[in-house]
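Run log // design_07
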């Protein structure tokens, strides 16, 4: 049985992995895909560079899929404990319950979306010999339903990360007063809007 102390540290580890390495990887993923804005040749050169990195499978498992699995599973544990309407103590009305609710809902959606995304991109390349280049992604994103799925996925990923910044600074005692917490909420909104705009722009650059 997991003790309260274990839960305490697991929750902090859960919030920390959402920023590093997962949040850092999300930013890198956006940066890499942003080469699509410059056209097929620029994107394909960057994609080839990534595929030629030494120990790529080790990096993917150790820095992405391993932390992602822990973050996802323990996120479900937190959700199952009934935190949806009780995000924390001491924040009162300054911590909007709907924001925390969407954090949990977006996390559940992202579990499905990331699996879908990995299957259609990384798995197709590794196990089925599909060249995942600009042309493939342009065809893949062409249907309206794919753009809709990915638009929602991008918005959820950006929100989950941006609101996670607030969670980390609160849980780790970085924002210790109401003014700092409110400022962090505003900053998380700015990050969400900026990242969402970039992500949607990248999506529609594949054409």
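design_07 sequence
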């Amino acid at each position: 049985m997991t003790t309260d102390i274990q839960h305490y540290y697991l929750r902090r580890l859960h919030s920390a992995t959402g920023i590093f390495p997962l949040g850092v990887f999300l930013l890198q993923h956006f940066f890499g895909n942003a080469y699509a804005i410059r056209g097929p040749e620029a994107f394909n050169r960057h994609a080839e560079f990534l595929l030629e990195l030494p120990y790529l499978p080790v990096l993917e498992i150790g820095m992405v899929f391993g932390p992602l699995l822990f973050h996802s599973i323990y996120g479900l544990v937190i959700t199952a404990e009934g935190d949806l309407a009780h995000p924390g103590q001491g924040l009162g009305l300054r911590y909007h319950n709907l924001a925390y609710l969407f954090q949990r809902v977006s996390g559940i959606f992202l579990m499905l979306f990331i699996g879908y995304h990995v299957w259609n991109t990384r798995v197709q390349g590794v196990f089925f010999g599909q060249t995942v280049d600009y042309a493939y992604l342009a065809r893949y994103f062409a249907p309206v339903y794919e753009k809709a799925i990915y638009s929602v996925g991008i918005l959820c990923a950006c929100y989950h990360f941006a609101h996670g910044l607030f969670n980390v600074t609160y849980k780790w005692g970085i924002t210790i007063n109401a003014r700092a917490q409110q400022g962090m909420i505003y900053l998380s909104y700015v990050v969400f809007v900026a990242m969402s705009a970039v992500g949607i722009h990248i999506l529609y650059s594949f054409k």
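The helical segments are 4-19, 22-33, 40-51, 56-80, 97-127, 134-141, 144-171, 178-203.
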